[in-house]
Each structure stands twice: as structure tokens, then as C-alpha cells.
């Protein structure tokens, strides 16, 4: 097995565990800080699905610099990190609304499970991408992914205090 991939895999396992802990703690930061409006841009300010997506997104961004392949910025390893960040973020509403649609109701333990399942599935996807792409360069796709991540940051910042009139934001 490629030594770079093994290092990536080991770092990813540690990173996802850190994200799981940070995301769990993040759920409470806004209230713990007296509802600090600046911190509301990074931490959930209410119980909407949209705000809970921050539990995966910002902790995943936090670990990215520690896992980033500095030798080749557009490598498949970095590509995998960005894809994984967006996957974990958007799997939260997908899994939540899927199970709620099937069951017709929601349960707290299932809501919480969607977060951890999202992280697990995104980690599996990141490992698959890293293993199959390795150090190959993905310049165009990489910059497109950077733009998508930046767009997601801006969307969180705008819709945190000016939510859309959609179910995901309520």
C-alpha cells in the first residue's frame, strides 16, 4: 500500500474523530457564549437543519489544513478533503429528511445519528477518492471545489441571520 495513502488514511481517521467531537461541542457554543452574533456565523444558532449542517462543515474545514497535501495542492488527496466536507455537510439534511419522510416523525437519537453517519460516509468516500486518485492533479475540479466551499461559507453567513423561507431553514 502506498505510504502517502496510509498516512492520509491514518490522519483521516484521527481527523474524523476530532470533527465528531468538535461538531458535538459546536452544537452548544452559541448558547454558551451568550448567543454571540459573530460566533453564530460558525456555530448553529437554532435547531433548523440548515444550522445543523454547520456541525460538519466548519469542523471539517478546521481539520483540512492539518491534512492538506502541501506538496501538490491540486492532488486527489486535497480533492477528497473538499468533496468529503461538502458530502458530510449535505448528507445531514438528506439523511434527516429521508428518515423523517419514511417514518413520518423524527426522534432525537435519529437526528444525532444522522450527524455521525454523515461523517462516517464522507470519510469512506474520502478514502475511496484518495485511494483511486492519489497524487494525480485535478486543477480545474479542485478550483471548482474551492469555489463551491467558498459559496457554502457565504451561504451560511447570509442565511444564518437572513434565513430563506424554506423548511430546511426553519
Structure notes:
The chain has 170 residues and is mostly helical. It has one domain (3-169). The chain has six helices and no strands. The protein has helices at 3-32, 49-52, 54-67, 76-103, 108-133, 139-161. The protein starts with a helix and ends in a 9-residue tail after the last helix.
Question: Which labels suit this protein?
Answer:
74% helix; mainly alpha; 0% strand; 170 residues; globular
Which secondary structure elements does this structure contain, and how are they paired or packed?
Blueprint: H1 3-32, H2 49-52, H3 54-67, H4 76-103, H5 108-133, H6 139-161
Helix pairs in contact: 1-3, 1-5, 3-4, 4-5, 4-6
Overall tally of structural domains: 1
Largest pleated sheet: none
State Rg. 16 Å
Compute the average pLDDT. 91
Sum up the overall morphology in one term.
Answer: globular
In N-to-C order, the SSE pattern is: HHHHHH
Task: Count the beta strands.
Answer: 0
Offer a quick outline of the entry.
By secondary structure, the protein is mainly alpha-helical. Helices cover 74% and strands 0% of the residues. The chain has one domain.
Amino acid at each position: 500500500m502506498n505510504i502517502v495513502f496510509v498516512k492520509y488514511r491514518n490522519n483521516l481517521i484521527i481527523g474524523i474523530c476530532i470533527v465528531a467531537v468538535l461538531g458535538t461541542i459546536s452544537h452548544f457554543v452559541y448558547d454558551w457564549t451568550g448567543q454571540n452574533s459573530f460566533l453564530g456565523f460558525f456555530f448553529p444558532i437554532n435547531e433548523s437543519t440548515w444550522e445543523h449542517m454547520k456541525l460538519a462543515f466548519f469542523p471539517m474545514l478546521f481539520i483540512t489544513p492539518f491534512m492538506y497535501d502541501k506538496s501538490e495542492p491540486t492532488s486527489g488527496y486535497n480533492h477528497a478533503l473538499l468533496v468529503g466536507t461538502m458530502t458530510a455537510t449535505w448528507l445531514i439534511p438528506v439523511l434527516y429528511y429521508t428518515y423523517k419522510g419514511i417514518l413520518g416523525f423524527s426522534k432525537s437519537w435519529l437526528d444525532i445519528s444522522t450527524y455521525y453517519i454523515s461523517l462516517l460516509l464522507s470519510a469512506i468516500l474520502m478514502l475511496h477518492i484518495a485511494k483511486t486518485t492519489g497524487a494525480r492533479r485535478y486543477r480545474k475540479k479542485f478550483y471548482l471545489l474551492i469555489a463551491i466551499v467558498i459559496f457554502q461559507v457565504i451561504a451560511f453567513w447570509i442565511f444564518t441571520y437572513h434565513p430563506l423561507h424554506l423548511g430546511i431553514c426553519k
